[in-house]
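ok so heres the complex, four chains, lmk if somethin looks off
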Amino acid sequence: MSDKINNLSVDCVVFGYEDNQLKALLIKRDKEPEANKWSLPGSYVYLDEPIEKAAQRVLLELTGIHDIFLTQVGIFGEVDRYPQHRVISILYCALVRPEMFELLAGSHAKEVSWHEINSLEKLPFDHNQMLDAALNWLKDELWRKPILINLLPEKFPLNQMQELYQLILQNPIDNRNFRKKVISQGLVEKLNEKSKGGQQRPAFLYKLKVPL
Amino acid sequence: MSDKINNLSVDCVVFGYEDNQLKALLIKRDKEPEANKWSLPGSYVYLDEPIEKAAQRVLLELTGIHDIFLTQVGIFGEVDRYPQHRVISILYCALVRPEMFELLAGSHAKEVSWHEINSLEKLPFDHNQMLDAALNWLKDELWRKPILINLLPEKFPLNQMQELYQLILQNPIDNRNFRKKVISQGLVEKLNEKSKGGQQRPAFLYKLKVPL
DNA sequence: CCAAAAGTGTTGTAACTACACCCATGA
DNA sequence: TCATGGGTGTAGTTACAACACTTTTGG
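and the predicted structre for the whole thing:
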């Protein structure tokens, strides 16, 4: 492996949906600065490494998550954003189903775990701004592309999808309008299956329709 | 001035509106690689320099344009985008009125001038992709924010504004719908003045309304 | 008076909002 | 049978697209 670029890093916001909560994947930092603090997974880019590859590698090394769909959502380049020296960081965002991966702390991560978005302490550096940027990106994209495909289980009742939308958008949505919209837009496909194990009336299951 | 970051540069797409054409500002490169080719103005970022400041500086040094509103529109980080070594470039875009600035080639620019968007030869490196990215950004933003404020003269007839929209969006717009829209959205304000010097019926002048 | 550009209204459609009740099931 | 979440329809509003003629002026 060649040299790393000292002034360029990638950071990743990985969102997951679990226990009816929207969560982000954080690592506990091993080294100074900010040792033992929870922060976004991130690290340097190598000289001969495409930036997105770097993001994939970093996620794998630090958290065990691999081969997921990543999107660039911003650049963070304040001169003093990192205390030790100038680092410009490129922010990536991904959506995953937590149950799909076994978390595995590695490299400079002491621990990895999912943290509920709304009950986070202050993160180091500019990671709170990064998280905000990622959330805003997510809100923006939500109705444009079927990006939830990696956040929702394969089959789900519509009301669960609605809850997730509400969690992300942070405001309530009218149930009838929501159903009309996702169905008429062809975002989802109704299955001939009903949820089981609920305490009440079973719901029809849907799956996301991905445009060819 | 401190060291430059060898792997990080900024490039700028500056759009201008002149002679009823949408133009981009290009420099003729002084040095290898691609000496004597027209390309986007760009250069390295210094270690202690905020990225946008770098873009402002680079524009001033190369073209004489200064203190304009710049927006980040993308990152170009392909490993081999620049032949000599790895450079990640951050792309900025600006809109200016050509008549407001005197162009002044400096630094590694041999010449500077405005080039009509639709009759450009192939640009070096990935500058064509950058231009496309900037154009797409412009198309996207066009109806969202009054970004034309720096592209149109202070006072203009509505039909000129429409022409500019058509140039950018690359398709025709219905004149009545256009007028209704920009007026009802409060984008423009009608003045008590008419254009002079035209060969036909004078038009009322408008100015852009900037939201507080 | 004529050429050229300025300016003007209506109608249909699609998308969104707001809103309240009955239904099916498991306990 | 009842508590719980699942599921449905209508009406008003707003934004947009399509479309053709009259008006004003300078030459």
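quick notes: The beta strands of chain B are 4-18, 21-29, 38-39, 42-46, 70-76, 88-96, 109-116, 156-157, 188-194, 204-208. thats all i got rn
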